[in-house]
Write a structure and sequence with these properties.
disordered C terminus; 4 strands; single chain; 4-stranded antiparallel β-sheet; Type II secretion system protein GspG C-terminal domain-containing protein; alpha+beta; transmembrane; rod-shaped
């Protein structure tokens, strides 16, 4: 009888410890974002914008186009776009003006230049993301 009682106590103790752990794991797993969900995509987009210079260039190109469409003019500087659209300040991107294209975004190390497409039908297919020879 003593052996059966010890087995029962051990089983009861084992269940008392493991059941709450299983319940806590289920709660934690249910709180994690599902792959492909909107919150997960937003986190990925934000981290890409900060860490990848080319993604930052494309992002600012899109925001300048949106600004031009909404306001009817180009912004004075990228800081204004950053403040208005609540996106991080550009770390890798600057811009210059050009006679043919208007505004040209470029990486601060001058390795890639891309004209801001304004929707006026300018042929820029050969110039987007063209690497400059040094």
């Amino acid at each position: 009888m003593q052996v059966q009682k010890n087995k029962f106590n051990f089983l009861r103790l084992f269940l008392i410890i493991t059941i709450p752990i299983i319940i806590i794991e289920i709660i934690i797993i249910s709180k994690l974002p599902v792959e492909g969900s909107q919150t997960n995509e937003i986190l990925i987009k934000r981290s890409d914008k900060i860490s990848n210079p080319i993604n930052e260039l494309v992002t600012y190109n899109n925001f300048i186009r949106r600004y031009k469409k909404e306001k009817g003019k180009f912004p004075e500087d990228l800081k204004k776009i950053s403040d208005e659209y609540s996106i991080p300040q550009p770390q890798h991107v600057t811009y210059t003006t050009d006679k043919n294209y208007g505004y040209i975004l470029q990486l601060k190390d001058d390795s890639i230049k891309a004209p801001v497409f304004t929707g006026k039908g300018i042929d820029i297919k050969n110039n987007i993301f063209k690497r400059e020879e040094k």
